[in-house]
Amino acid sequence: MYSFKNDYSEGAHPRILEALMKTNMEQTIGYGLDEYSGKAKELIQSLVGNTNANVHFLVGGTQTNQTALAAFLKPYQAAIAAETGHINVHETGAIEATGHKVVTAKTADGKLTPSLIKEVLEFHTDEHMVQPKLVYISNSTELGTVYSKDELEKLSYFCKEYDLYLYLDGARLGAALVSEKNDLTLKDIASLTDAFYIGGTKNGALFGEALVIIKEELKKDFRYMIKRHGGMFAKGRILGIQFLELFKDNLYYNLAEHADQMSMKLKEALQEKGYQFASDSYTNLQFPIMTNEEIARLEESFRFELIEKIDEDKSVIRLVTSFATTKEGVEEFIKKL
Amino acid sequence: MYSFKNDYSEGAHPRILEALMKTNMEQTIGYGLDEYSGKAKELIQSLVGNTNANVHFLVGGTQTNQTALAAFLKPYQAAIAAETGHINVHETGAIEATGHKVVTAKTADGKLTPSLIKEVLEFHTDEHMVQPKLVYISNSTELGTVYSKDELEKLSYFCKEYDLYLYLDGARLGAALVSEKNDLTLKDIASLTDAFYIGGTKNGALFGEALVIIKEELKKDFRYMIKRHGGMFAKGRILGIQFLELFKDNLYYNLAEHADQMSMKLKEALQEKGYQFASDSYTNLQFPIMTNEEIARLEESFRFELIEKIDEDKSVIRLVTSFATTKEGVEEFIKKL
Amino acid sequence: MYSFKNDYSEGAHPRILEALMKTNMEQTIGYGLDEYSGKAKELIQSLVGNTNANVHFLVGGTQTNQTALAAFLKPYQAAIAAETGHINVHETGAIEATGHKVVTAKTADGKLTPSLIKEVLEFHTDEHMVQPKLVYISNSTELGTVYSKDELEKLSYFCKEYDLYLYLDGARLGAALVSEKNDLTLKDIASLTDAFYIGGTKNGALFGEALVIIKEELKKDFRYMIKRHGGMFAKGRILGIQFLELFKDNLYYNLAEHADQMSMKLKEALQEKGYQFASDSYTNLQFPIMTNEEIARLEESFRFELIEKIDEDKSVIRLVTSFATTKEGVEEFIKKL
Amino acid sequence: MYSFKNDYSEGAHPRILEALMKTNMEQTIGYGLDEYSGKAKELIQSLVGNTNANVHFLVGGTQTNQTALAAFLKPYQAAIAAETGHINVHETGAIEATGHKVVTAKTADGKLTPSLIKEVLEFHTDEHMVQPKLVYISNSTELGTVYSKDELEKLSYFCKEYDLYLYLDGARLGAALVSEKNDLTLKDIASLTDAFYIGGTKNGALFGEALVIIKEELKKDFRYMIKRHGGMFAKGRILGIQFLELFKDNLYYNLAEHADQMSMKLKEALQEKGYQFASDSYTNLQFPIMTNEEIARLEESFRFELIEKIDEDKSVIRLVTSFATTKEGVEEFIKKL
C-alpha cells in the first residue's frame, strides 16, 4: 500500500547513509564539538550569509522548537502562533511544558500577518496577562503555503518595531524554498528572522534539524539549554555529517524539488478532475476535498491522513510527498482517482 | 591521538548500519508504531521475561531519564540518587527542569543501599519538604561498579516496603551484565525494578535507549510524555531496527564483553605498575590515580578525562573502553605507562 | 471619585476585622492546622453537605486555580476553558507556568456547554496533542452570567461520561448564588463538581478562598502542592477565622445580596435610559455599552474599567459592585447618566 | 500550654490591626498600586538608602523566594545555598518547581563563605552541569546565626568578581539586625546584595514580606512574575499599610529587640544550667541539647520543635521567641528547667 501519509515514511537519502558509513569508525569528540559538526556549522553560516550566526544541530522539530522558545522567552512571555501552528496543535504542549503560553491568531492560510499580530498585542495590555514576545511562523506552513519575501519583510519590520522576536520553523523549509511561489533565499531568511531552523528529517536526512540563531542576545549559553532538554546528542557528529552531505552539490534543494514536483503532479491531476482544495499549496502537501466514498476507495490502495470533515459527505485529506516519493506511486494514485 | 575519553567516540557497529541500509527505502508508519519497532519491543519483552512490560525507544539517556521521572513522579515528589548519580551531576538540571528535586546520599562506590535511603526518608517528614518517591540507581554506576543480585534484591524489597519506585539507569547496562563481578540477568532486573532502560548509545548502537516499564501504574499514556518532551522520533523504526539487530545473535553482550575485556586489560596493566584506583571497577571505566606529570605525558598521545584532583601532585583520570576500542590502542597505552 | 472598578477596592467587612482582633494574641499552631481552621473546615463541609470533602484555605484566586490544576492534572493533560475564562486571560499564564495548556472554546456568554466541550475532545485525538482532562468553569462567570442547575447537571453528567474533572472557580460564587437567576445551592455544586472554591476576597473577606475537593482521587497530598506553590500561609488561622465569620449568621450571602442589589439598581437605571449591554448579567458585574463621550464624562466622577471597543464611537465598560458599595455611590452614578 | 514553636503563633502587633481598621472602608486601586503601598515603598527605599530600589510586597517567604529566583535565573542556572538553607530544605521543592536546581554547601553554622562557594563553582565546569548563578543566604540563618558586615562584604565582593547574584532571605531580618552580634544596617545590606527581603510575617505583621531589588537587570517586569506565581494580592494596600506601620516609630526594630531579649534570657538561663547548644545563636532562635527525659518533661508544659537526635539519649530542640513572647512564658520555662 503506497503511502502519502507523511514525509518521513522512508529512511534517508542513500548519500546520507554512505557518509555515515564512511566515517563510522573514526574517533571524534562528542556532543557536536567534533570536526564534522564544526565544518557543517561553517557551511551553514556561509549559506545563510552570516558568519556570526550560531548553528546547533538537534534531533527533531518539537525538540528544536521547545528548546529554542524555552531559551528565548522569559517565564511570563508568550509565543504568538497561527491557530494551525505546529507548536499550538501537534507538540503535546511542549511549549507549555516549559511554562509558556502560546497565544493564537485565526488565519485561513496558516500564515501570520502584522495586523493579526497587532490584534494580539493590543489585547495583552498589562501584567495580569502574559506578555507576547516571540512570533512563531512556519515556512512552508502546516497548510503547505509559503511566505513571500514581501510578506516576511513586513513581518520582520513589524517585529523589530514592536520588539518581538521572529522565529521561523523550517521543518519543511526545503519544500518552501524550491516552491514555484517562493522568492526567498536562506540569506533572506537569516537577515529577516532572529532564529530559524532548517529541517533535515523531512527532507532526506535520517533525522536532524539545524537551528540557526541570528540575534546576538539569543545566543548565550544555548548548549546548556540543549542539554537541559535532553537534546545533547552524544555522537553529535552524526548530525554534522548529515548536514555536510545535505548541503553538498545542492542535494538539499534537489530533494525538495523532487518532493514538490511529485506534489504538483498530484495537484494538477486533482484539479483536472475538478477537485477543490482546502489550501492552495505549491509545496509538498496537498489538501484535496473528497467525498467519503472516494476517500474510502482510495484508502484501499493508499495511506494518507484524514484531516477534517467538511460536512456529512465530504472531508479534507492530506497527501504528502517527499524526496523518496516515486513517480510510479504518484501515477498509480492519479489513475485511481 | 587514540581516545579513551568515552564510549561514544565512534559511530555504530557495522551490523547496525547495514540493517539501516537494508531497510532504508521501505515505507513505514512513523513514531515507533512500525513493524520493526513492534518486533523489537516483543523481543525485549521476551528477553526481560515480561510480556506485559511496556517498551519505548528514546534517543538518549538524559532524555530517557527526564521523560521517565517526569512521568512517574507527582509534582511534589523527589528522586533519591547517589551524589555521583548522572541525574544529579551531569544532566544540567534536566530533572529539576521538570519540577522535581533530586535528593542525594553520599556514597563511596556510587551505589545506594537501603540504609542510605532510609536516612533520606527519615529526614523528609512532612509537607514542608519534598516527598522522596523514586530511587534512581545506575548499573553499571558512574564509577564503574555494579550491583550484585543480592544488593538489588535488598533495594527492591526496601522500595516495596516503603512504597518507593525503583528505577535503573542502564546507560551502561551491557558493560554491567557481562562484568566478571555481575550475577544479574535482564530478567532479574525486570523483576526487581519498576522501570529501567537498556542503553544502546554506549554499546554499539548509533544511538538509542530502550525504556522498559514494568509497574502497571507507570505505563499509562507514556507516549504523551515522550512527545511532550520532544523525544517522539519521527522515523521511529530507526530505533527499532537498531535494537532488533543489537539483540540478534548476542551482539549486545558480545560488544559489551569486548569493552570490558579491553578495560580489564588496562586495569591489570595499571595494577602491575602499582597504580592506585579511585574506584574498583570491573566494567568499561577505569579510574587510576596518577601524578600530574604522568598525566601530562599520557595526554600527548591519548585522550581521556581528568576527573578530580587528589592533591597538589596527583589526580584521578578516567579511561573508557567501548565496543570499538582496539587492542592496539590499549597496548599502546600500556606501553606508554 | 467613587469606584466601580472592582469588588476588592475596600478592606473587609467590619465583622471580619473584629474577629481577627478578638483572637489576635492567642497562640495557635501554624499552617492551617489550628482549631479555627479546623472548625471552619467542618462548617464548610456541613454547608456543602459532604463531610468527606477536603477543605483548604488559600490566599487568592490565581493561587488557588494554579495549585489545584497543577495537582489534578498529569503533565500532558490540559484544561478546557471558555475563551473568556480567568485562567485563560487574566492569570499571566499561571496554568501554563505549571506545564499545562489551556484549550479554549468560544462562547458568547462566558459559559461552557457539553457540545462546546465535545468539539474540543473530538479535535484532540492522540498523543501528538495534549489530552483535555479538566473542565474549568467560573460561576458567576467573568461576564456576570450564572449557570442554572440544569446546565450544571448536564455539564456534570457529560464530564462523568467522558472521564473529565469538573472544576468550578467560585471567585464570585456569592454573587452567583444570590442572583435572581440562580437555582443552585452550595450542596448542588458540591455534588455536581469534582472541586470548586468559595471566594472570600471578592465577597467581604480581607482575603482568602476556600477550596473544596470532592473527588477522592484528587485529595491526596494536596498540602504538599500548596506549600510547593508558595501558598502555605504561616498564620493559617487568619484564613480559618475569616471563613468562620463569613458563614456565621448568613453574612456571606447577605454581603453578596447587597452587591447584587446595587448592581441590579445600576442595570435597571441603565436599561431605562436605553443602554444596551454586552452581557445580560444578574450578578454584581454590569457591562453597558456607551459612547466614548459618555464614558469620558463619567470618568470625571467615577472609576471603572474600559473593557472593549465596539466601534469607533462606542465601547463596553464594566461596573462592579460589592459588599461595600454604597447606595449613595450608585445613586450618584445614575444621576450622572 | 505556652508555645516556643515558632514566631508566627500569634496574630499581629495591635498597631498593625488598628492601621487596617482605620483605613478599612476607603476605596483604593488594587494589586499594590494604591497610595499606601506607594508610600510604604518610598519609605523602604529611604530606609535602605536607595531611591532606585524596586520594592514589592508579597504574602509569604516561600512565595517571595520562589518568585524572585524564578525571575532572576535563566532556566539552566542554579542557586547556591547552605545545606540548611530554607529553599533547600523547607519549601517542598518550590525552587525546583520553577525548574532550578539548588546546589548546596555543607556548613556548620548555616552561613556561606567565599571559599565554600568557590568549591561549588569549580565543580561546575561546563554545559553538562547546571550553571550556579545566584548565592542564597539567610540573615539571620535557620540556625539563628548572623552575618557580620565583614562577612557580607567578602561575600559581596566575591559574587561581583564571579558574576553571581547575591540574594538575602530576610524572613528573620529584624531579629538579625538587632542582635548583639550584628554590625549591619539595612543600608549596608542594600549596598552589598542584589536583592533581599524584609520579613514581616515573623516580626509582628499579620503577614507580608517586602522584597527589595537593587540590581538594575533584575527589576524588569517583576510584577508579571508575581502574578504568574499567584502572588499578586488583590487588596494590595493591606501589605502596604502594614509595612508603613511597621517602620513607623521604629516599631519593626522594637519588636525584634523584644524577641531577641526573650531569647537571650532563655539562652542565659540554659547556659547557667550547663546546657550545650547546637548553634551559638544571639537572635530569636535557641537550639539547646537536652536529654530525652528532660524534653519529655518540658513538653508537658510547653510547645517547641524537636530538631534532631544527637544520640540515643540526647536531642536538639528549638525554642523560638517573637514580638509576642511574654516575660511570664519565658520565666515559667526557665523555672521548669
Automatic annotation (TrEMBL), chains A, B, C, D:
<dbReference type="GO" id="GO:0016829">
    <property type="term" value="F:lyase activity"/>
</dbReference>
<feature type="domain" description="Aromatic amino acid beta-eliminating lyase/threonine aldolase">
    <location>
        <begin position="15"/>
        <end position="290"/>
    </location>
</feature>
<comment type="similarity">
    <text>Belongs to the threonine aldolase family.</text>
</comment>
<protein>
    <submittedName>
        <fullName>Low specificity L-threonine aldolase</fullName>
    </submittedName>
</protein>
<dbReference type="InterPro" id="IPR001597">
    <property type="entry name" value="ArAA_b-elim_lyase/Thr_aldolase"/>
</dbReference>
<dbReference type="InterPro" id="IPR015422">
    <property type="entry name" value="PyrdxlP-dep_Trfase_small"/>
</dbReference>
<keyword id="KW-0663">Pyridoxal phosphate</keyword>
<dbReference type="GO" id="GO:0006520">
    <property type="term" value="P:amino acid metabolic process"/>
</dbReference>
<dbReference type="Pfam" id="PF01212">
    <property type="entry name" value="Beta_elim_lyase"/>
</dbReference>
<dbReference type="InterPro" id="IPR015424">
    <property type="entry name" value="PyrdxlP-dep_Trfase"/>
</dbReference>
<dbReference type="InterPro" id="IPR015421">
    <property type="entry name" value="PyrdxlP-dep_Trfase_major"/>
</dbReference>
